[in-house]
Each structure stands twice: as structure tokens, then as C-alpha cells.
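Lab notes, practical 5.
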Amino acid sequence: MSELLKRILFAVPAAILFIFLTWMGDWYFKGFIIVIGFFIQQEVMRLLSNSGNPTDQYFPYTIGLWIMLFPSIPFAVEIGLGILLAFIAIQTFNTAEDSVTQLSTTFFAGFYAPVGLLCLMMIRDLGTNETGFILTIATVLMVWGGDVFAYFGGRSFGKRKLAPDISPNKTWEGFISGYFGCFVGLAIALYAIPLETNFTMKMALPLILLVGTFGPIGDLIESKIKRKAGAKDSSNLLPGHGGFFDP
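Output from the prediction step:
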């Protein structure tokens, strides 16, 4: 079976499941995102460990779950501060030479993916069920469109390297092309999905700039972590796609 066929056979049912759970919303969607967050954290922690920067085994999961459940937890701020202070207090007595590095990588593993996924869950909760659904799908399509346009734009027009030491194939031309992909993804979500929403293309520019800028930055962060760990993919959990941490 070819790699392309594997990708298609996995991507189609996965997309249908995502759309269904996004439409259902509430804890159907949140539970799905939390599970994805768990796997991403697991992959990030493994990559950091393989690169010589191990993390604490439990704190990233604890703080990550807290972040993603933040809007639903009573006294969430107080609980979160308690977790942070307890972890820092424990690390104070860590006499290992790499304790400072372990502290920073642990915080990265605990916050990086969960904060982004929390934003996605908050987008899903915006407005009515229909508005939240279409904005969530729009966000995902913008990220996907940006990746696709950046890839083909870079291959067709790429001359100036964006970050050659981190990801040699990424170019400034591909980076700029990604903004057009974000626009196309947003347009598809707004005009191809027959739902009533007050969101219009006049409100699109800030979203396009936000997703088009931070999407590639996230890709570079991922590339740097995988390069240092000597890994092509973050895992092999997703047939033809690598891991959940892979774009």
C-alpha cells in the first residue's frame, strides 16, 4: 500500500469524526481534544528526552489537563498556582546538574500544546452552537490551507530560506503563500458550509494574520525539537501521517 493511499484512508474517516464531534460540541468535543492533547504531550516528552533534555514524568500531564479543563474547574486559578508552586518547591531540592534544563523543558511540555488546544476549545464555545462550529472548522481549514499553500508556494517560487538551520526546505516565499492559503480555508468555511453566522470576511484579516504567522512558527518549533532528537516523525500512531505532534 502506497504512503499516499495510507494517508487518504486515515484522513477521510478522521476528518469525518472530527467534524461530527465538533458539531456535537460540549464534552464530546472537549474530551476528544483532551485525548489528542495527552498524545501530543507524550510525543513531545519523548522527543525532548531523546534530545537529552528529559522532563518530569508527571507534571506536564497534570498541568496540561488543568489548562484544558480551566474554564470548567471551580477555583481554577488557585488550583493551578498550587500545582505550579508545589512543583517548583520540589525542584528546588533537585541537586542534579541539569535541574534547570529539566525545569524549563517540563514547563514547555506542560504548556505548549495544552494552551493551543484550550484556545481551540474556547473558539468552539463562542456564540451559538452553529457559530462555534463554523469558527472551529474555519480555524482548522485555515491551518490546513496555510500548510498546503506554503508547501506548494515554496516548491514553485521558493528562493530565500526562512530558517535554514532548523528547516532547510522552508522559504519566505512559502511563508507568504501561507497567508493566501489561510484566506482560502476561511472562505471555504464561511461560504461553503450552509450555516447562519454573523461572521463575515470583513473580520477575517486579524485571523488570517494570526494563523498565517503563528502556524509556521509552530512548525519551526516542532522541526527544531525533532531535528535535535534525530526523529523524522513524532511517532507512528497515525498511518501515513506520523504522530499527533506532526503537522
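Observations recorded by the TA: The longest strand covers residues 167-171. Helices lie at 3-24, 26-50, 59-69, 76-92, 99-124, 129-157, 172-192, 204-229.
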